[in-house]
Amino acid sequence: MLAQILSTMLPVFLIAGCGALYGRYRTPDIKGLNTLNMELFVPMLVFAVLADRQAPLQEYTSLALAATVVVLGSGIILYPLARVLNLNLKTFLPPMMFNNSGNMGIPMLVFAFGEAALPAAVVLFVVEMLLHFTVGIYMLDPHTSIIRRLRLPVIVASIAGLAVNFGGVPLPQWLLETLNMLGGVCIPLMLFTLGVRMLDVDFSDWKLGMLGAIAGPASGLILAWPMIAILDLPGLQVAALWVFAAMPPAVLNYMLAEQYKQEPHKVASLVLIGNLGSLVVMPIVLGLVFAAGYV
After folding, report:
1. Which of 12, 26, 242, 284 is the 20 to 30 Å CA partner of 108?
2. Residue 247 sits in which domain range?
3. Among 169, 158, 135, which residue's Cα sits nearest to residue 60?
């Protein structure tokens, strides 16, 4: 079991470590790399996986429902805590709800459970992304145009991929191979840029960051448990949901906090300390998943 955990965690954190090491001595254009990734490579991977008719997406509807409950339920569960501690709801709740299902989630699930986990990883990522750009944006600014946000390349690729899959449209193998090769670039690039971002950890609000590093995964895991008990999920999807529920906050939370001027320094602490906390949380969760024999 230890070998399985190490074989999953080491590639993730070694690639992120390379990004941190490179960023320590150079100043890479992270904004440009993230833009390229989110506008080209990630949409290609999402479309390729969702459009591939060999991946029957009807089998993932229960997983998508469970992921929705985990994301939205985390905000409901942690609302009383935020009130008791007199925390700004717009600052604290979004990072607790919208997790790192892209930068860390997709690579983690693929490294842990193999290529067979890629459709589940993409479904979880799409659910989180759709909720982030609808519910999440609404939480920060109820007056923001949702239609404009739904025009993002990742969202368009998701809708197109689902339409192709459910419509039974056959795609030539050479096209899928091309999309998969280009889309495959996004996985290591996500981890590399995450490593560079980790250099920006702000410990001025470390108490809030530590609270988030505990509360975020805890709320997700608490919600995942009844969903697994209620829904008849296959073993691989159960394993993917456990890992998804324990993911740290998405880096996108910080970018949106900057855009909407929502205490970005505090959100940065929640995001980056939460991702550092995953060094402890993820090995524990993976150990429990492997011990349970879901895969």
Report:
1. 26
2. 1-292
3. 158
For the stretch 98-131, pLDDT in tens is: 999 987 888 889 989 998 999 999 999 989 988 9
| Three-state DSSP state, 251 | coil
Query: Is 99 strand, coil or helix?
Result: strand
The number of distinct structural domains making up the chain is: 1
pLDDT, position 223 = 97
The CATH number of residue 238's host domain is: 1.20.1530.20
Phi, psi of 202 (to 5 degrees): -105, 115
**CA-based nearest residue to 67, from 274, 254, 228:** 228
Mean pLDDT, all residues of the chain: 88
Picking from 181, 175, 178, 137, the residue whose alpha carbon sits closest to that of residue 155 is: 137
35: pLDDT confidence band, cut at 50, 70 and 90? confident
